[in-house]
Structure to design on (623 residues):
């Protein structure tokens, strides 16, 4: 909730704040159903994305208009606080397994970083991928609503996003026809 | 007609010493075969064990000469002479003998037993396998119980085909053994704790295969990324009995893709921008038996593949089954398990789940799903969500002829997939259930 509030305050100060705020509020009340969440998660999580994840996303967007709002929220906010907390717990568990492996296997490299450094680093990568996929998904879905979200994101300071996300927003917007 | 032929046969048998007696077998004359029987009627065999089956017949003239039959079998292989060799999967099977040129048949019931491992003191007795089988210990894992000191990593050895000796393993440590029997499917059993014994002779163990990584990175933190990814991958290989690890130190070369210092791209940087084919052909990357991993920095100008991907295993599209070129690309922003996933591809494993090879239902934790993390995890989250290979995947990774391990990697030339009749084992089974018909698979 803290992240969401901070973001809203930031957005409210921008020229398109009202537009983004509208989209965010719309997203909050019009999210994809739980059963559709798996399609979104497959898109967010796929490595090579050769299993039709993108097609499924487009189909979902055609049937559930709220998909664009959900992606917009994902782009602008990244994973929720609860998601981040749970992902961090999983990374902590991974670190413990790796540390145990390294301690027991003399052939293994030492990790060379603390658990907190590890969690911070890979959580940041997860967040970046999450936002990148949101941007790319919006570009693939297209339409005026997706364009509006991408345009609004581009009006934020570039420092609002990791460079990879910023680049992906540009790529997604450039892939859409129209001003 | 029948009587005449028999009379001739009898006459010749007594008076014609140079006659080829095989030409006079009863089934080649026109007696009527009343019934045939396969013996033994039932057999219980260990995995990989052999049993000779024989047929007898009841002929219309009262004879019992064996008729000519064709043998078929389930759960194993059978020769034309009735020598049955059990497969590696426990179960109830059949040996069937069908009269050649006739309609009579008989069936024997075969039970193939599951091998087992049972700890007795400091030794682990292997039962349910024939002593001639060659066993291969894929790993000796150690799960440290709370409060215990570190478990030894080399305390298990194979001292006989039916016995494993364990030393220096305290009660606080438990060991899991993954055991392969020659000609059989992988066998896994878990041995609980046992009494340690100091007087144990350790012999040479077939160790896990070290896969040497050569890492090329386009960004400064490539080294820390590569170490974390490699440790995670090795830990996952270890925990899932994949039989390989990524040894340290990892060779890491950092290059500047724009070669800002000299104003031009190095040949390797140019090749990386070109993708799989050009990179694989670069002479800097062609050390035999080495797995190349390219870490590419963010930005569409650098990543040579679709921007939706962050991992790529390069394959040789000119060959059947598109085997790995021993080359992996990983984008700077990637999930921790990306290297483990891509190495799975290198070892011939395909994607599972999401409608692919999903007949048996792959767990959400399988590393060869294309989605290797769960963006919306549900509690409990104390264990990583994606962290498993199936036993079948571990087997295929090691024994598929298209696995890089066998084709270009450290096991190249070891003929691990060649049967004695020079046929090759199957490739790319698409289910986690294993059928390995090659009876003489060389594991050593």
């Amino acid at each position: 909730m803290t992240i969401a509030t901070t973001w809203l305050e930031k957005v409210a100060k921008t020229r398109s704040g009202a537009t983004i705020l509208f989209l965010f509020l719309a997203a909050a009340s019009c999210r994809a159903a739980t059963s559709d969440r798996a399609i979104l998660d497959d898109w967010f999580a796929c490595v090579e994305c050769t299993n039709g994840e993108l097609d499924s996303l487009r189909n979902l967007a055609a049937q559930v208009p709220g998909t664009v709002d959900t992606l917009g929220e994902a782009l602008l906010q990244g994973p929720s606080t609860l998601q981040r907390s749970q992902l961090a717990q999983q990374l902590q568990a991974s670190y413990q397994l790796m540390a145990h492996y390294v301690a027991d296997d003399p052939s293994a490299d030492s990790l060379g970083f603390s658990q907190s450094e590890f969690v911070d680093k890979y959580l940041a990568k997860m967040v970046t991928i999450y936002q990148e996929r949101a941007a790319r998904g919006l570009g693939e879905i297209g339409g005026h609503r997706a364009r509006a979200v991408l345009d609004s994101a581009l009006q934020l300071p570039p420092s609002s996003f990791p460079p990879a996300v910023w680049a992906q927003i540009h790529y997604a917007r450039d892939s859409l026809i129209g001003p | 007609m029948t009587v005449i032929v028999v009379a001739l046969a009898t006459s010749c048998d007594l008076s014609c010493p140079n006659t080829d007696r095989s030409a006079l077998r009863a089934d080649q004359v026109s007696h009527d075969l009343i019934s045939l029987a396969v013996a033994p009627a039932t057999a219980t065999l260990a995995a990989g064990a052999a049993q000779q089956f024989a047929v007898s017949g009841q002929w219309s003239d009262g004879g019992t000469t064996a008729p000519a039959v064709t043998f078929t079998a389930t759960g194993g292989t059978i020769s034309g002479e009735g020598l049955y060799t059990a497969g590696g999967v426990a179960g109830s099977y059949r040996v069937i003998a069908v009269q050649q040129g006739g309609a009579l048949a008989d069936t024997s019931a075969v039970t193939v037993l599951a091998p087992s491992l049972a700890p007795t003191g400091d030794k682990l007795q292997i039962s349910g396998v024939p002593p001639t089988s060659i066993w291969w210990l894929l790993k000796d894992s150690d799960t440290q119980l709370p409060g215990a000191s570190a478990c030894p990593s080399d305390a298990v050895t194979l001292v006989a085909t039916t016995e494993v000796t364990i030393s220096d393993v305290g009660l606080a440590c438990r060991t899991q053994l993954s055991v392969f029997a020659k000609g059989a499917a992988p066998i896994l059993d878990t041995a609980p704790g046992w009494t340690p014994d100091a007087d144990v002779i350790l012999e040479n163990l077939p160790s896990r295969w070290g896969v040497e990584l050569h890492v090329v990175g386009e960004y400064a933190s490539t080294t820390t990324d590569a170490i974390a990814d490699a440790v995670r991958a090795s830990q996952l290989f270890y925990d899932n009995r994949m039989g390989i690890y990524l040894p340290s130190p990892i060779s890491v070369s950092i290059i500047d893709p724009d070669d800002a210092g000299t104003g031009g791209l190095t040949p390797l940087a140019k090749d990386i921008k070109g993708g799989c084919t050009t990179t694989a052909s670069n002479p800097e990357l062609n050390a035999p038996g080495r797995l190349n991993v390219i870490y590419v920095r963010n930005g569409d100008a650098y990543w040579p593949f679709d921007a939706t991907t962050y991992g790529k295993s390069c394959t040789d599209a000119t060959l059947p089954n598109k085997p790995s070129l021993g080359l992996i690309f990983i984008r700077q922003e990637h999930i921790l398990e990306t290297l483990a996933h891509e190495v799975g591809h290198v070892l011939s494993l395909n994607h599972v789940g999401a409608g692919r090879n999903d007949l048996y239902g792959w767990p959400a934790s399988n590393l060869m799903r294309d989605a290797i993390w769960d963006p919306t995890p549900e509690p409990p989250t104390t264990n990583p969500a994606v962290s498993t290979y199936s036993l079948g995947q571990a087997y295929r990774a090691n024994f598929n002829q298209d696995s890089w391990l066998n084709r270009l990697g450290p096991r190249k030339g070891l003929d691990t997939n060649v049967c004695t009749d020079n046929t090759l084992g199957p490739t790319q089974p698409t289910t986690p259930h294993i059928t390995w018909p090659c009876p003489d698979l060389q594991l050593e």
Summary: Helices of chain B lie at 2-15, 222-239, 267-274, 276-280, 338-346, 391-399, 404-407. Chain B touches chain A through 59 residues (CB under 8 Å). The CA atoms of residues 171 and 318 of chain B lie 53 Å apart. The radius of gyration of chain B is 29 Å.
